[in-house]
Amino acid sequence: MARASEQLPGDRSILAAEGVSKRFGALRVLEQVDFAVAAGEAVGIVGPNGAGKTTLLNVLAGAYAASAGTVRFRGANVTSSGAAERCRLGLARSHQVPRPFGGMTVFENTLVAASAGGGLRGATACERALDSLELCGMLRLANRRAESLGLLDRKRLELARALATGPTVLLLDEIGGGLTDAEADELVGAILGLRERGIALVWIEHLVHVLVRVVTRLVCMDAGRIIADGAPEAVMADAAVIDAYLGQGVA
Fold first, then answer.
1. What pTM, to 2 d.p., does this model score?
2. Residue 21: how many CB atoms within 10 A of its CB?
3. What average pLDDT does the chain have?
């Protein structure tokens, strides 16, 4: 199975992890991970629980510092940069459990993202916030208090807040988790809209049937390493991937 470094020459990669490892004390969570994403590409990441998927996203986003290796974004070494700095550069993420600011409206939540995350001010920030809400199907709820939203709308707001920062790369962490199939279908429509804008996506998701409707490349992780990387159909048919999910040898 082709590896990311073989698929994406360095001059095409907008985001790359080079030999990235992450340890928490004696616990090794990531081990020498090489991973790259091209501008406008949509990549899905799958794997069993504990594979290191969310940790990789946290290292890419700057929420965790890498124990070893290098993270590059738009050609620059951002290994020592924090999450806020990377966000200002155009690298945003969503979280698995949405936590909107309580006591604020949907619009105000998105405006904070455009201002604090995107560095915009005044009318420009307002326009970005409204545009993000419209793309995510949340404009009709702009004046609703965020804490009153149901799960699907909280997920939509989480997506809109990330979008309002103006990302060129968006990291999605199980944004479909907890949704019904019908709700997941609605969310897919919004995410496809991001692709149409040329935003590169890295999406962790256990709902593989939802994931493959958006991504064109699939990466499988297990025990802190990438074990397969390529076309979704080929990755899901790979013996090592099946073994990782089923936990037993495959002939």
1. 0.89
2. 17
3. 91
